[in-house]
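During the no-cost extension, the postdoctoral fellow (Dr. R.K.) reprocessed legacy sequence entries with the updated structure-token encoder. One reprocessed record is reproduced below for audit purposes.
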Amino acid sequence: MEQLHRYLFSCHNDYARKQLGVPVDKVYKPFAQVFKHWSWKHVGPGGSSALPTTTNVMPDLAAAMKFNPNLVVQLEAGYFDLATPFFQGVFEFQHLQLPPKQQANLEMKFYQSGHMIYANEPSLRALHANVAGLVRRTSGGSAK
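Re-encoded structure tokens follow.
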């Protein structure tokens, strides 16, 4: 497995330097130990203390949508995602504490892909069309 990691790291470096033009003095650290320094102590809107669990920002999203009733949120999900539980986003949207009228501002789009939707070309095209459509529909300041 270590040999595979070295090969993938080498391929990434080659691509980053030759195709993307990343300067050679920049170091890519694919396995940087950042989580030991990460603070999960998030206090949600109206809260007085952090929850003793992992961060949940869904109350923040509900608060933002209540503050701006024209805000539209689009969930993008790949059916074969092994990194994020597929139905978690659907569940969260269905249980978001919003008035019924604002629930209409929640959109869900699904793709025949994994976690990296853009890695599957037909899904990439659909993702682009969905996001571009969202921007076009909401640019004038009205949600629906």
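Residues 121-138 form the longest helix (18 residues). The longest strand covers residues 73-78. The remaining legacy entries will be reprocessed before the final report is submitted.
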